[in-house]
Design a protein that fits this description.
It is a single chain. By secondary structure, this protein is of the alpha/beta class. The chain is built from 7 helices and 5 strands, in the order βαβααβααβαβα. The protein has a 5-stranded parallel sheet, sandwiched between helices. α2 packs parallel to α5. The radius of gyration is 17 Å and the shape is globular.
Length: about 200
């Protein structure tokens, strides 16, 4: 619910803004919000239609889902494995683009309507506290461009990113990524600059 009115706020994976940036200081509720989103997705999608890809630098946030049948791979707790898994997802995305181009369909939704017996699953990435890893120069060198490409090309292939950080500074949420994560959710922040970076106001 919106803090300033009784309006409900919707984040729709099949809408125009299918990736989300969640910013807020420690203890502002980022992880609770992500857990709510994950539980909602688990409750309303079969494992055939939805595959979750959970990245957990803190190593405790997503432990509860380790046995969920929706997981595309085990919860990622390690920087090196994270790079491998992100690159795997990029390959999947590119394969889907090639497949759709061959069939002459323009996006994921059209494909699933036209070929209901060959449905593609929606691939949803949840990344809890991006800053923990992206500030590591080796990880950034390997993963930054992959994350940007996933955010810019993912929608049409049914790939979605939900990234949370308590440090929404330009070295963590670089401008190109921020432009692509078009659903912006700001929880309580400790400085007005952080609100400015997340929401632009």
């Amino acid at each position: 619910q919106n803090e300033f009115s009784d309006d409900c706020i919707f984040f729709k994976l099949d809408g125009a803004s299918p990736h989300a940036l969640i910013g807020g200081q420690t203890k502002s509720g980022k992880s609770i919000l992500m857990n709510n989103m994950i539980i909602d997705l688990l409750m309303t999608n079969s494992p055939k239609n939805l595959r979750l890809r959970l990245f957990d630098p803190k190593q405790v946030e997503f432990a509860a889902y380790s046995a969920a049948p929706h997981l595309a791979h085990p919860v990622v707790l390690d920087k090196d494995e994270a790079v491998i898994r992100l690159k795997e997802l990029e390959i999947l995305m590119n394969d889907r683009y090639h497949h759709m181009m061959t069939l002459g369909v323009k996006d994921f939704e059209t494909h699933n309507k036209k070929y209901p017996d060959k449905r593609m699953s929606r691939e949803v990435v949840f990344f809890d506290e991006l800053a923990d890893w992206i500030l590591d120069s080796d990880f950034k060198a390997e993963a930054k461009d992959v994350i940007v490409r996933l955010s810019s090309k993912g929608r049409a292939a049914g790939v979605h990113l939900v990234l949370a950080t308590q440090r929404p500074s330009a070295d963590v949420v670089f401008p190109l990524l921020r432009a692509n994560l078009d659903t912006k959710i700001a929880l309580k922040v400790d400085r007005d600059q952080n609100s400015e970076i997340i929401l632009g106001e």
